[in-house]
Amino acid sequence: MDQRLVSTWSNVNSSVPLSFVQPPECRPGKVTNPSTKTIPLIDLGGHDHAHTISQVLKASQEYGFFQVINHGVSKDLVDEALNIFKEFHGMPAKEKVNECSKDPNGINCKIYASSENYKIDAIQYWKDTLTHPCPPSGEFMEFWPQKPPKYR
């Protein structure tokens, strides 16, 4: 079992490691659902780029997130990407690590738990992350995972 991925820990530990417990001041407070507020909706299809940037900044500051429409990415492509990511993260941990170990320098394709600074960060986030560059030139594709086959 590869201990580098938090997805393998559920059968090992009977409790959450303390490094994954967020301090009280960082935890969400009482959650309310104000009926007068809605998720900010940002239209990327407009021609007023300054206004769009202003909307993104405001939504990020006030909510921390927003919904985007007219972004130019088809629903089919989004659905296919999500299915491929689910398939990758559904593979056994050892297989995921092997798929991300082809880069001799370990910088162009890597998988890690919580953050890249796992060993020095005091507070962790319970997640496994796959990261690699994806320039339009196709450079670095030789380091991308071979599985699932549609990943590439």
Automatic annotation (TrEMBL):
Keywords, comma-separated and alphabetical: Iron, Metal-binding, Oxidoreductase
Residues in Non-haem dioxygenase N-terminal domain copies: 39-146
Molecular-function annotations in GO: metal ion binding; oxidoreductase activity
Domain of life: Eukaryota
Stored Pfam families: DIOX_N (PF14226)
InterPro entries (alphabetical): DIOX_N, IPNS-like_sf
Protein name: Non-haem dioxygenase N-terminal domain-containing protein
Organism the protein comes from: Pisum sativum
